[in-house]
Amino acid sequence: MSDDPSAAAVPGPDAIPGANPTAGPDANPDAGPAPGPDAFEANRRYLGSVAYRLLGSFSDAEDVLQEAWLRWRSVDHSTVADPRAFLTTVVTRLCYDQLGSARARREAYFGEWLPEPAVSYQDSPASPAELAELGESVSLALLTVLEQLTPAERAAFVLHDVFSVGFDEIAASLDRSPEATRQLASRARRRVKDGGRRATADPSEHRQAVEAFAAATTRGDIEGLLSVLDPDVVWHSDGGGVVSAGARPVFGADKVSRLVRGLIAKWFTPAMRLDLALVNGEPGLLWLDESGAVGGVLAFTVADGRITEAYVVVNPEKLTRIAPAAG
Questions:
Q1: Does residue 131 sit in helix, strand or coil?
Q2: How far, in Å, CA of 172 to CA of 164, rounded?
Q3: Which residues pair with residue 80 across a beta bridge?
Q4: For residue 216, which of 31, 224, 278, 306 is within the disulfide window of CB 3.0 to 4.6 Å?
Q5: What pTM did the predictor assign?
Q6: Phi/psi at 262 (5° precision)
């Protein structure tokens, strides 16, 4: 495969990890029952997590899962020894194909294109079973950086570094050698490190900075904002041309603080509020409008107690799956 995706055709069972090309009517009857259609449902959450991290869009991920389901239905399940590995390959190849058309759409997008945020309200750590299904948390900032990678680099990085898939399996998914796949992941890792902003690994420090930002914002306190913003902070916003948002990033604490204060003065009313939530696994904020509906999602990177980057998604098409916390 080249780095410019072409149509993702699923090859015969002998070319896909997890398949057993010798299985069939004369297969060993003691090998256990062949996987049936329920195997797809059993792995759906995991497959959806893979597709979302590869594409940065829930709607695109859902399209991939639908196509993967149709292809799974057409496969002779008696030839599949490991449904999870088989389906991971199918989903990876479909996403690889999607990344080509997605890149073209995003280049024509009005303003900055930011990934669709994933919002939750669970502060407790995920169980081992949940981690296996969901993979490592991928922040909105990291998903944005992944947009700079080639499709092959992104697939290798996400599958190996996020979901701990082995290089042999990834190599078969990308139609490359394991060594070439290892190099793709290594190159992607370097590009992610070089393209990322300084960030802390301390969740409590991250949360404190987000809470301080929310408090200063709702008061219109420019000095409070300046105290929590890194001098080189970058503000990203995505309105998609549907609602008002900056078409380009805003750089520097002074400009960002004045932008935020201006937005609050123009748009914020006493009936609106900013609520703390987990955005792609990290503390972030939901902006709730006067009706209580989600009008925007804010994600942040934090280093040394200050916000180094803010990602503001207000495109309503990217907020349809988000509901405020109950109660």
A1: helix
A2: 15
A3: 19
A4: 224
A5: 0.82
A6: -65, -40
Are the C-beta atoms of residues 115 and 279 closer than 8 Å to each other? no
Q: Name residue, tokens 């300084």.
A: 198
Contact 225, 217 (CB under 8 A): yes
Find tokens 């990602």 and name the residue.
311
The one-letter code for the residue type at 199 is A
Strands 119-120 vs 229-238: parallel, antiparallel or unpaired:
unpaired
- Please tell me the number of Cα atoms within 13 Å of 291 on its side-chain side: 4
pLDDT digits (tens, 9 = 90+) for 224-279: 999 999 999 999 999 887 777 877 899 999 999 999 988 888 878 888 889 999 99
pLDDT band at 303 (very low <50, low <70, confident <90, very high): very high
CA torsion, ordered 26, 32, 34, 36, to nearest 10 deg: 150
> How is 140-154 classified by DSSP, letter by letter?
HHHHHHHTTS-HHHH
Residues in the chain: 327
Q: Please, are residues 189 and 16 in contact by the beta-carbon 8 Å criterion?
A: no
Alpha carbon separation from 298 to 140, 144, 204 (Å, rounded):
10, 14, 17
Closest listed residue to residue 259, CA positions, set 231, 290, 306, 217: 217
Residue of higher predicted confidence among 208 and 4? 208
Compute the CA torsion angle 173, 175, 176, 182 (nearest 10 deg). Answer: -10
The CA distance from 256 to 300, in Å, is 13
Could you tell me the two tokens for 237? 């916003």
Residue 8 has a pLDDT of 36
3 state DSSP class of 232? strand
How many angstroms separate the CA atoms of 286 and 226, rounded? 21
Going edge to edge, which strands form the sheet with 119-120? 119-120, 273-279, 282-288, 294-303, 306-313, 229-238, 250-251
Segment 63-76, tens digit of pLDDT: 999 999 999 999 88
Is 243 strand, coil or helix? coil
